[in-house]
């Protein structure tokens, strides 16, 4: 897949331009599916109003409201109860998957349970746009600081599609989010390379090439 791993969504022109480049066509000519699943697992995010805001394009994180040709909803918790032929072709035909933030292990669990995780390697032209947990799920580990929910197995691994970890929502001292000191303390418990990045930053991954796209602040820890 092509990955656009964001902290706060498509929040500025640089990130939007990177998305258009990855799509290879305008947003207005591209189809999208939004995945709200991670929101339900996080006590501060869902279910309820904020899940509706994300799906309807009324959230403070620009993703669903960018002007897509069409937008649908792919709810991962529902997929195990329906036949694959009802949803796999839909995913294969879609240009971009817009993946909400929330609880990263809840999202990872349902990606595996639904079969979406197994489908990802075959989606060579699809663009995955992650928001916070929707980005972190692609990393090999997230660290204890970001774990609120654990699957029945207790497994705290994530998908490991990229070889680095992410601390999202980097913020100046005293502002909502994670301070640089907190990010550095978190990174001390991560075994591989890790990025701390604010909501004006994204990481673009295409064919194994990693590029930071930012109009804000970030640091490789």
From TrEMBL:
Does the keyword field hold Hydrolase? yes
Mind telling me which SUPFAM superfamilies this protein's record contains? Class I glutamine amidotransferase-like
Q: Which InterPro entries match?
A: Class_I_gatase-like (IPR029062), Peptidase_S51 (IPR005320)
Presence of keyword Cell membrane: no
User: Which keywords does the record carry?
Assistant: Hydrolase, Protease, Serine protease
Q: Record's family? A: Belongs to the peptidase S51 family.
Write down the PANTHER family for this protein, in alphabetical order.
ALPHA-ASPARTYL DIPEPTIDASE, PROTEASE S51 ALPHA-ASPARTYL DIPEPTIDASE
Identification of the protein by name: Peptidase E
